[in-house]
Amino acid sequence: MTLQELEKEVPKLLDYTKTMPEELRRLSHVKIHPPGSLIHQKDYALNYLGIVAKGENRVINEFENGKIYMIETNKAIDFIGEVTLLANMPKTSVTIEALTENTVIYLPRKESEHWINTDIHILRRMAERTAFKLYRSSYNNGLKLYYPPVFLLADHLVRLYEQAFTNTPAHDKAPSCSFTLQKTRERLGEELGMNIKTLDRAIRSMQKDGHFSLVKGKICFTHEEYLQMKDYLTTFKG
């Protein structure tokens, strides 16, 4: 697939690529990353700037003891390597893993830097995306330090439910809008920053209180139970 074909397939992409110099367009190449694959790995030299045209990925930090901490998840349209590039650092600081199939446009770093240095439009788009992620991180900073595991789990499940049904009309959000969490305990623990024992205790406590059911080990809840969790969060916050 070429950049031009991708722009036709994803019209919103044009807002990011419309001022791209012709030379850089010729040097670009499109790559598709399957779910579960690594797009970007920590401590590797950044040779390309990426623009994610389609897909969702997660940003993680890997430690020497093998533990993984999930920083955030991002959806297209987004950049890959923009923080390293803007900070003028040679190596990447995080690992990025594809959650769904990701279609990424890769641009050579040197030419990308020249484009960003001379084009206020793409610099502003990059700054907006970087600022949005920083704002989101700052807004939720400290949540895991000051709230108990049950609260963190409930808050996470509420957010996942709202993301899943974000395009569902209000009149359709009836008790039939059930939600099943299709994630392993390991993945959920990484996202919450909890070890498995702590997570299991939080799950058993919430199940006992009737916030959700477990079906073949998976967390399942209805729209009514989602509302109960929202009430619990509101009450807990005082």
Mean pLDDT level: 90
- How far apart are the termini? 53 Å
Number of strands: 11
Question: What string, H for helix and E for strand, traces the elements in order?
Answer: HHHEEEEEEHEEHHHHEHHEEH
Largest sheet: number of strands, sense, barrel closure: 4 strands, antiparallel
Question: Widest sheet: strand order?
Answer: 1-8-3-6
| Protein structure class | alpha+beta
Question: Whole-number radius of gyration?
Answer: 20 Å
Helix share, percent = 40-55%
Characterization of this structure:
The protein has 238 residues and is an alpha+beta fold. 46% of the residues lie in helices and 22% in strands. Strands 1-8-3-6 form a 4-stranded antiparallel beta sheet. Strands 2-7-4-5 form a 4-stranded antiparallel beta sheet. The chain has a 3-stranded antiparallel beta sheet with strand order 9-11-10. A hairpin with a 2-residue loop joins strand 10 and strand 11. The model has no long low-confidence stretch (mean pLDDT 90).
Give a brief rundown of this model:
With 238 residues, this protein is α+β, with helices and mostly antiparallel strands. The chain has eleven helices and eleven strands.
Provide the fold topology.
Layout: H1 3-9, H2 14-17, H3 22-27, E1 29-33, E2 38-40, E3 48-54, E4 56-62, E5 68-75, E6 78-80, H4 82-86, E7 95-98, E8 102-108, H5 109-118, H6 120-140, H7 143-146, H8 149-164, E9 179-180, H9 185-192, H10 196-208, E10 213-215, E11 218-221, H11 223-237
Antiparallel strand pairs: 1-8, 2-7, 3-6, 3-8, 4-5, 4-7, 9-11, 10-11
Helix pairs in contact: 5-6, 8-10, 8-11
